[in-house]
Amino acid sequence: MAVADVTDALTAAPLRSNRRRVVRRILHNPLALTGLAVLAIAVILAVFANWLAPHEPTQTHLDRAFAPPGTAGYLLGTDDLGRDVLSRIMFGLRASLHVGVLAVAFSLVVGVPLGLIAGYFRTVDALISRLTDLVLAFPFLILAVGLAAIRGASLGNAAIAIGIAQIPGMIRIVRSETLRIKSLDFVAAAIVEGASDAWVLGRHIFPNAGSAIIVQATVGIPAAILGEAVLSFLGLGIQPPAPSLGTMLADAQQFASRAPWAAVMPGVAIMLLTLAFNIVGDSLRDALDPKASRR
Amino acid sequence: MKPVLAVKDLSVTFRTEDGPLSAVDRVSFDVGDGEVLAVVGESGCGKSVTAMSIAGLLPRTATVDGSVELDGTELIGADKRTLRSIRGREVAYIFQEPMTSLNPVFTVGHQIIEVLRTHIGLNRQAAHARAIELLKLVGIPSAERRVGDYPHQLSGGMRQRVMIAMAVACDPKVLIADEPTTALDVTIQAGILDVLRGLRERLGTSIVLITHDLGVVADLADRVAVMYAGRVVETADVHDLFAHPEHPYTVGLLRASPAAGRHADAQRLNEIPGLVPVLTEQPDACTFADRCPRALDTCTSSQPQLTDRPHRVACWNPVREPVEV
Question: What residues contact residue A37 under an 8 Å CB cut-off, 6+ apart?
Answer without folding.
Answer: none
